[in-house]
Write a structure and sequence with these properties.
Sig_transdc_resp-reg_receiver; phosphoprotein; elongated; two-stranded antiparallel ribbon
């Protein structure tokens, strides 16, 4: 992209209405929609052919994950801006997008101006990941990564019915030991009870 050329943006989403809305917004903002794709296969073909300055990609595509597209791009380009667009509230998806090499992560429920702003900032710093809630997500992910193998086993047992005593017996440990692990899990996941631990664990793809 030259200093005077309008940034080119490829839109990847299987919903025409979503693509249409973003296309109008970026064109008003002085950017060029160089193409649209409704699937992973179409996206990879157009990216290879058109080499856009930025791509806006949905996390969920009919023939695969948008993260596959992100990873493919990063293998071939370190300078292309990649904005992941999704309906997902899960922090694990945000972390996965960052790890795959995305530049920004925006929810579809966000104002369209937020999408345009994410594209602009990503064009300036394509390798600096930004997203609302990233600090909290990283803190939660870091907490989960410090779970010991035994704590992870205890955490996963919580989704089964039964009392602490029942679950302890199923793991062949004493109830006191089970409660000790449970207290450590609550502290690391920053939750107060069993339901909170299960909800947080599911959000982090630990269950």
């Amino acid at each position: 992209m030259s200093a005077l050329a309008a940034p080119s943006v490829l839109l990847i989403d299987d919903h025409p209405s979503v693509r249409s809305g973003i296309k109008k917004a970026i064109e008003v903002a002085g950017m060029l929609c160089c193409g649209e794709a409704a699937s992973r296969a179409e996206a990879l073909a157009q990216i290879a052919h058109k080499s856009p300055d930025a791509v806006v990609v949905d996390l969920h595509l009919p023939d695969g994950s948008g993260l596959d597209v992100v990873q493919w791009i990063r293998k071939h380009s370190q300078d292309m801006a990649i904005i992941v667009l999704t309906m997902s509230d899960e922090e694990s998806h945000l972390i996965a997008a960052m790890r795959a090499g995305a530049s920004s992560f925006v929810k579809k429920t966000a104002p369209i101006n937020d999408v345009v702003a994410a594209i602009r900032s990503s064009l300036l710093q394509p390798k600096n990941f930004s997203a609302p809630g990233i600090v909290s997500a990283l803190q939660n992910f870091e907490a989960a990564s410090f779970l010991t193998p035994r704590e992870l086993t205890v955490l996963q047992s919580l989704s089964a019915p039964g009392t602490n005593s029942d679950l302890a017996k199923s793991l062949y440990i004493s109830e006191a030991t089970f409660k000790t692990h449970l207290a450590a899990i609550y502290r690391k996941l920053q939750v107060k009870n069993r339901l909170g631990a299960i909800t947080k664990a599911r959000g982090l793809n630990l269950l």
